[in-house]
Design a protein that fits this description.
- By secondary structure, the chain is an all-alpha fold.
- It has a single domain, classed as Farnesyl Diphosphate Synthase, CATH 1.10.600.
- It has 9 helices and 2 strands.
- The chain has a two-stranded antiparallel ribbon.
- A hairpin with a 2-residue loop joins strand 1 and strand 2.
Length: 181
């Protein structure tokens, strides 16, 4: 169990450092929007999604006889993109028009601290930055590497369904009937 705990702690630290590096700062991002984005991203949390992405990358690398640390480094932007998408969904879910939550992880929610408008911009910025990270991913240099990246994406899809992330507690039947949760 100590090996797993050590791995989780090391990967969490990797993700934290990478998120700090990947999040935009002024002048690329208005300072107050950047502050609101960081407020939610660094509000705590287990970083389960990025760690699962890194574990998937390591598993695929191990199965293909590839270097684990190189696979982890290559997957880190994708892992961080998953965390940014997850955080975006939390920021928007907490908004007054949605669940109107005022606390998350024991802290005031983004819209309580920064106002509804900035919270919307922060959430939108997190989602946009996630796609930016994915778009910056290098193209695979060979066929085996492309297959490895595809397999990592397939494993990540099993972690978090896009429909579930967007729909939340609302059933598909409710959506089809035009009813809100």
């Amino acid at each position: 169990m100590s090996d797993l705990r050590d791995w989780l702690e090391a990967r969490r630290a990797d993700v934290e450092r990478a998120l700090e590096r990947f999040l935009p700062a002024s002048p690329a991002c208005p300072p107050r929007v950047g502050e609101a984005m960081r407020y939610s991203v660094f509000a705590g949390g287990k970083r389960l999604r990025p760690m699962l992405a890194l574990a998937a990358a390591e598993s695929v690398a191990m199965a293909n006889g590839r270097d684990l640390s190189a696979a982890r480094a290559a997957a880190l932007p994708t892992a961080c993109a998953l965390e940014l998408i997850h955080t975006y969904s939390l920021v928007h879910d907490d908004l007054p028009a949605m669940d109107d939550d005022t606390l998350r992880r024991g802290r005031p929610t983004n819209h309580v601290v920064f106002g509804e408008g900035l919270a919307i911009l922060a959430g939108d910025g997190l989602l946009t930055e996630a796609f930016n990270l994915l778009a910056r991913q290098p193209r695979p240099s060979d066929y085996d590497e492309a297959l490895t990246q595809l397999e990592v994406v397939r494993l990540e899809q099993r972690v978090d369904s896009a429909v579930e992330a967007c729909v939340g507690e609302m059933s598909l039947a409710d959506l089809a009937a035009g009813r809100a949760a």
